[in-house]
From TrEMBL:
The keyword Zinc does not apply. This is Outer arm dynein light chain 1. Keywords: Leucine-rich repeat, Repeat. GO terms for cellular component: cytoplasm. The keyword Transport does not apply.
Amino acid sequence: MGNNLVRVIESEREKGTVEMNLSQRGILELPPEIGLLTNLKRLKLDGNQLTRIPFEINYLSNLQYLNLKSNSLKEFPEALCYMQRLEILDVSKNQIKSLPEDFGRLQTTLKAFSISKNRLQEIPSYFCRMKELKILKLEFNPIEYPPQNIINCPPEMPQDVWLNRLKEFLKRDG
């Protein structure tokens, strides 16, 4: 799909496309030309076989929604940390073990984040500073030890059911 995908991207750029669905297309690699789609607000890439995301994705300056669920990502794509308008991000069902420190840069925009069914081993403490985050999905990760400050996060911290259960467990156990 490589050259075909580049042609599709170039065609969609000319149209000024704001939403693109590339779900379940067997895509192995996203070309750097993805960064040309500067009008995009929503991008669905779920159900492919992506192992990495090109840095050029952060050129999508209007992107608000990104679905990377059910791919083969082993590392969190660091370029996503620099997306200025990203509100909803789904990287569930991948193989991600950790989040980069720069993930905290999304604290002013990110409202919903799912990293369920990955290999995440700890909950980064910067989640407590993410004031806009309303939905945080962390289920089915082999979390070894959540930081103590997650228990003491301010009330505006995302309060999904799983996190509440974790807090209660830690209070009883601690």
